[in-house]
Amino acid sequence: MSWRVDWRASVSLVGTVVKYLAGTMVVPLLVAVVYGDDVAVFAVSIGVTVAVGLALERLDDDPDLGAREALLLVSLAWLAASLVGTLPYLLAGYGTGSTLADPVNALFESTSGFTTTGATVMGAIGVEHHSHALLLWRQLTQWLGGMGIIVLMIAILPELAVNGAQLMRSEAPGPELQKLTPRIVETARALWLIYFGFTALYVVLMYGLHLAGLAPGMDVYNAVAHGFSTMPTGGFSPQAESIAAFRPVVQWVAIPFMVAAGVNFALFWHVLHGEFRVLLADPEFRTYTGATAAFVAVLSSLLFLGAAPSLEIGGATAGVSGNALRQGAFQIASLLNSTGFATSDFAQWDTNAQIVLLFAMFVGGSAGSTGGGVKVVRWLVVLKAIRRELFTTANPNTVRHVRLAGRVVDEDAIRGIMAFTLLYFVLLFGSAVFLAVDSARIGYDLTVLEAFSASLATIGNIGPGFGSVGPFGNYLRFSDVSKLLMIFLMWIGRLEIVPVLALFVGSLDGR
Fold first, then answer.
1. Burial of 362 (0-12, 13-18, 19+ CB in 10 A)
2. What are phi and psi of 471, to 5 degrees?
3. Burial of 382 per CB tally in 10 Å (0-12, 13-18, 19+)
4. Residue 290: what pLDDT?
5. φ and ψ at 314, to 5 degrees?
6. I want to staple 262 with a disulfide (CB 3.0 to 4.6 A). Which of 185, 217, 371, 505 is the partner?
7. At what angle do helices 164-171 and 184-211 cross, to 10 degrees?
8. What's the sign of the alpha-carbon dihedral 263, 267, 272, 275?
9. Do 285 and 376 touch, CB atoms closer than 8 A?
10. Which secondary-structure segment (H or E) carries 403?
């Protein structure tokens, strides 16, 4: 057994990724020029990022990736992106007393952005004290991480295309990668074009509401900023009140986009090619939409019956029912696939409504979507595997396969899903205990539910939890040790645990 891995090849290509990430900082730099703030911050950040990327590239002139090198590249690329993302925060916060001037806080915010978690150390008030450029960078990190940094690089860099399928398999959310075209580069480009198209449509609709006088405040900046956050299921907002700062019509328009973000983007490719039956026949899509509808119906009913008395504005039944439906639909669309936008402080809702939200957080989006969590297809396979086990126990001479959409699920895939699910829950509960103990050590009065929700919100890339880490709370009061643990959870959760942990397992072929 050997732990050997050609780290120079992996790190060299990480340098290439870092170098090109510097180009994305041009967007907030232009915003900084327009608004006249933090120009130097992004100019310096671009220069430092390019220099670091070029230096790392020189480690290997002709990198060759094996399986372990690919895993290392994907893991390090996401870590490097988070580290690069801290630069603007640190430079903007230097000497100002800002929360983000602290390196751990800056890394937490950056990691939360790139992993599309949406957990923050800034808080509602802190958001208002930062420049338009810095807040747009915060939004942009989510958009870059939504469809995947490596998928983007494969789409534009020929040197990564050779190992593209292997790299995308390591980064893509879900247990399998669906190859849409003969060439993996074309698949990567197709996924990003669909992702870009949804984002552009969202921005146009939001700004259209503003021009029509239906959404005051949803100007071009806010439309783009929320577009960068909705489709990647991120949840950050440049507004202190999040998306609740705008009229209800904005929330109604956002709901279908959040739901769409939790759908396997490969299905949209089939729809664009006229293959509507592929979408309707997909068992994960049917389960995802069915679960969404069921959760919305239950939560809206609870809200209408008084789970959140503050919703009963004006006392009119029609107004209450409409508000309950909107809040129920929005919160489920936001939390089921890990978007995490805030429209109401559900930490103040009654226990029954909170239980519904907690269950929704466990479901997650679809494989191949931008949503976080366990993923719907894994739950389907787990439930079918349990059913198979019960059946074969009662009928020991019977051979029975696990099937999805009429196809037999490979036993290796089933074992992989079971391993992921077990690791997910071990890390979830273990981290919750650690957060509770460490918080007690520093005198932070954290309840069991708050500790559990903080762990779930970070490993599931969800963002808000309950209580002090709720939709209008933040993670600032945690110790640096706890924040570093949650940074690890966000990172390993986005890469779905196994690719990262596999790096620490020696191979049997001498590599």
1. middle
2. -60, -25
3. middle
4. 95
5. 85, -20
6. 371
7. 50
8. negative
9. no
10. strand 403-404
The DSSP call for residue 311 is: G
DSSP result, 45-59: HHHHHHHHHHHHHTT
Q: What is the block-wise mean pLDDT of the chain (511 residues), using blocks of 10 residues?
A: 70 91 95 94 96 92 76 89 95 82 95 94 75 95 87 66 58 60 77 93 97 95 96 90 90 95 91 90 93 95 83 42 85 89 84 91 88 89 91 84 83 87 94 96 93 94 89 91 97 86 61 44
Rounded to two decimals, the pTM is 0.91
Q: What is the DSSP string of 131-192?
A: -HHHHHHHHHHHHHHHH-HHHHHHHH-HHHHTTHHHHHHHHSSSS-----SSSHHHHHHHHH
Write the single-letter amino acid at 475: Y
Q: Where are the alpha helices (DSSP H) in 364-511?
A: 376-394, 411-441, 448-459, 480-494, 498-501
CA 119 to chain centre: 10
For residues 245 and 254, is the Cβ–Cβ distance under 8 A? no
Q: Which two tokens stand for residue 364?
A: 């997650």
| CA dist., res. 424 & res. 484, Å (int) | 18
Write down the pLDDT at residue 2: 45
Write out the two tokens for 175.
């247990």
Taking the C-alpha atoms of residue 192 and residue 190, their distance in angstroms, rounded to an integer, is 6
Q: 282 and 306 in contact (C-beta within 8 Å)?
A: no
- Give, in order, the Cα–Cα distances in Å from 323 to each of 216, 242, 245, 472: 20, 18, 16, 19
Q: Fill in the amino acid letter for 439.
A: S
Report strand pairing: 407-408 vs 403-404: antiparallel
- Using CA atoms, how far apart are residues 425 and 401, in angstroms rounded to an integer? 26
Phi first, then psi: what are they for 387, rounded to 5°?
-60, -40
Could you tell me how many residues make up the chain? 511
Residue 313: per-residue pLDDT: 37
Q: Say how far apart CA 326 and CA 348 lie, in whole Å.
A: 17
Alpha-carbon torsion (410, 416, 419, 422), positive or negative: negative
Q: Is residue 267 within 8 Å of 285, Cβ to Cβ?
A: yes
HSE (CB half, 13 Å, CA atoms) of 307?
A: 26
Predicted pLDDT of residue 86: 96
